[in-house]
Amino acid sequence: MPTDRKSDYEVGYGKPPLHTRFKKGQSGNPRGRPRGSKNMATLVGEALDEKVTVTDNGRRRKVSKREIIVTQLVNRSAQADLKAMQILLGMVQEIERRTGAPTEPTSLSEADRQVLQFIRNRRLGDQTGDTDV
After folding, report:
1. Does the N terminus or the C terminus of the chain have fewer Cβ atoms within 10 A?
2. Which of 43, 65, 44 is nearest to 53 (CA)?
3. How many angstroms separate the CA atoms of 94 and 59, rounded?
4. What does residue 65 show for φ and ψ, rounded to 5 degrees?
5. What is the model's pTM?
6. Vertex 40, ends 34 and 43: CA angle to 5°?
7. How would you classify the pairing of strands 51-56 and 59-64?
8. Which residues of the chain have pLDDT under 70?
9. Which has the closest alpha carbon to 53: 39, 67, 70, 33?
C-alpha cells in the first residue's frame, strides 16, 4: 500500500472525501446573509440610540431619540391623552412584570380604589358606577 497522503486518508463519519470539502475562503452558503449585515432589532436599537440636539429650557443638549420618545409619551400622558396613557401604562406593566415588581400598591385609600374602579368601568364601557375593587 502506498504511503502518500491521499491513499491513507480514511473516509467516514466526520471525514468527508477531500475533493468534496469546502476550499479555503469558500462559504458554505454563498448566497446567505452577507457578512456585517444587521437584523431589524439591531437597526431599530441603533436608530433609537442616535443622539440629536434639543433645546430644553433655553439650553442645548444632546439626548438620544429613545429618551425624547419616552419624554414626549410621558408629557402627552400627563396632558390626559388616553392613547398615550394606555401605551405608557402597558410599558410600565411590562417593565414591572420583567423585574417582578408589584403592579398595584398594596395599601390604597378608599378614594384611590374608587378612582381605579371608575377607570376600569370606563375602559370596559360599563358606566354603572360600581365601587367594588
Report:
1. N
2. 65
3. 34
4. -65, -35
5. 0.51
6. 90
7. antiparallel
8. 1-7, 101-106, 126-133
9. 67
Quick count: other Cβ atoms within 10 Å of Cβ 15? 10
Please compute, for residue 101, the number of CA atoms within 13 A of its CA located in the half-sphere on the CB side. 9
Task: Please choose, from the candidates 68, 33, 70, the residue with its C-alpha nearest in 3D space to the C-alpha of residue 54.
Answer: 68
Q: What is the pLDDT of residues 10-24, one digit of tens each?
A: 888 988 888 888 888
Give the Cα separation of 28 and 21 in Å (integer). Answer: 10
Q: φ and ψ at 89, to 5 degrees?
A: -65, -35
